[in-house]
Q: What sequence folds into this?
C-alpha cells in the first residue's frame, strides 16, 4: 500500500487531533491546522521541504497569534465588573447628609450607608456624588 504525502499529513493531523480532544490543549489544534496546510501543499505537488516549511510556518504563526489572544481572554474574565466592583465609579444621589462619619445615598436603586472620602467634605441631600470605594456595607463617596 503506497500512500501519497498528502495522506501522511492527514494521518498526522488526525494523530494530533486525538490528543487535542483528550487533553484540550489548544496548541495541538494549531499543529493540526499546520498539518492540514502541509497536506494541501503536498496535494498541489509541493516538495517535502515546502510541506515541512508550510507546516512549521502555519503552526508557529497560529501559536504566536492565537495564544496571546486566548491568554488575554482567560485572564480578563468576562470583562464586566460584578458585585461591589460594578458599583465603584457610579454616581449616586444623597438622601441624608453625608459626612466623614455617616450618611445615606441611593445607589443603583438601593439605599446605602455612605461616608465621604475626605473628612472635611459634607454632601447635602439631592446632590450627586461619585462612589470611589465600597467599605463593607458603606459606600465611600466624593
A:
Amino acid at each position: 500500500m503506497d500512500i501519497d504525502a498528502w495522506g501522511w499529513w492527514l494521518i498526522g493531523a488526525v494523530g494530533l487531533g486525538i490528543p487535542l480532544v483528550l487533553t484540550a490543549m489548544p496548541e495541538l489544534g494549531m499543529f493540526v491546522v499546520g498539518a492540514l496546510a502541509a497536506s494541501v501543499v503536498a496535494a498541489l505537488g509541493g516538495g517535502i521541504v515546502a510541506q515541512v516549511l508550510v507546516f512549521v510556518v502555519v503552526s508557529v504563526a497560529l501559536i504566536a497569534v492565537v495564544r496571546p489572544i486566548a491568554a488575554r481572554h482567560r485572564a480578563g474574565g468576562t470583562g464586566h465588573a460584578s458585585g461591589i466592583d460594578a458599583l465603584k465609579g457610579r454616581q449616586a444621589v444623597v438622601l441624608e447628609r453625608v459626612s466623614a462619619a455617616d450618611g445615606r445615598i441611593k445607589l443603583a436603586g438601593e439605599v446605602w450607608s455612605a461616608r465621604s472620602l475626605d473628612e472635611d467634605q459634607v454632601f447635602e441631600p439631592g446632590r450627586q456624588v461619585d462612589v470611589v470605594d465600597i467599605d463593607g456595607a458603606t459606600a465611600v463617596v466624593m
